[in-house]
Design brief:
- The chain is built from 10 helices and 12 strands.
- It is of the alpha/beta class.
């Protein structure tokens, strides 16, 4: 067995298609398909189910990818041990929005335990900062138009649905249409256009200027809102009223300035966070939890 084929299998599983995996790996999709076929032949098992829309892991494939993730992390740790210890000391300034930081805290804590001589300076900002000015070393942002002069990785795509809390919905008849429920909206109005596409004229009762603030307002039962699935898909306090649609998606990019290419400390952090977020891809993209059981409430 070629061990590198396990890495290709993980990329295929994470992207859901040979074509997308090939784009990430920088090879042809026929090469990716051939390598997976050879791996299946070497192991004498079916690892991926091929469909007209892409690929998905078989049951044994899920188990093997889980082991491959552990191998990748072990390989990263071995690599880190061979680097000069001075490279793994100091500060990393990491910038993202509040809701994303909340979802990543467990991983950030794990990183600090693995690398106790690195200090994480986590900064929460609703607007993307300038890496050229040194405002941050690493940025995690949801955008479909990432800056061209930064180096980075597209780690997943946020899926958005319409959510409400159990406590709020219990106050209204079960068939109350969405337009007649109270709404909490983003302060800058960036999601208003999506609701216009659905033909919803929301009865706005509050606007909030941060993503986590919006989530907490919905959790408190103030109103329903257009929210990212990440962080709330598995939360029993939230009910999905309208399932995510593909055109509502925002790509998530992990970005650094080109000058960071040789900074081992930053490269290690980016690889670590990228791998951890790949484990959350089903939650981020709305394939688990309440988005898969959407009530698909009438719009008006």
């Amino acid at each position: 067995m070629n061990w590198d084929d396990l890495r290709i299998l993980e990329v295929c599983a994470r992207n859901g298609s040979f074509l997308s995996a090939a784009e990430e790996l920088g090879v042809s999709h026929t090469s990716v398909s051939r390598r997976i076929t050879q791996l299946e032949h070497d192991l004498n098992v079916t690892l991926l189910h091929r469909t007209s829309t892409g690929v998905r892991l078989s049951e044994i494939g899920v188990s093997i990818v889980a082991q491959a993730d552990k191998m990748a992390l072990a390989a990263l740790n071995v690599t880190n041990m061979t680097e000069a210890s001075a490279d793994m000391k100091g500060r990393i300034c990491f910038e993202t929005i509040d809701a994303t930081a909340y979802n990543l805290m467990e991983y950030l804590g794990e990183f600090t335990r693995q690398y106790p001589e690195i200090e994480l300076d986590v900064r929460l900002n609703q607007q993307i900062v300038s890496l050229e000015r040194g405002d941050a070393d690493v940025v995690l942002r949801a955008t479909n138009q990432p800056p061209e002069d930064y180096v980075g990785h597209h780690v997943a795509s946020h899926a958005f649905g319409i959510f409400g809390s159990v406590s709020l919905l219990n106050r209204f008849p079960s068939q109350t249409p969405l337009s007649q429920l109270p709404w909490v909206m983003f302060g800058d109005g960036w999601s208003d256009g999506w609701l216009e596409e659905l033909g919803i004229a929301p009865r706005t009762v509050m606007r909030v200027n941060t993503a986590n603030g919006l989530v907490q307002a919905v959790r408190s039962g103030i109103g329903v809102a257009h929210l990212a699935c990440y962080g709330i898909a598995m939360d029993e306090n939230f009910v999905c009223l309208r399932a995510p649609e593909k055109h509502w998606r925002l790509q998530i990019w992990l970005l650094a300035h080109q000058s960071m290419r040789r900074n081992h400390r930053v490269k290690t952090f980016v690889r670590f966070l990228r791998q951890k977020m790949s484990q959350d891809k089903d939650r981020i993209e709305g394939r688990v939890g309440s988005p898969t059981r959407s009530l698909n409430r009438d719009l008006s």
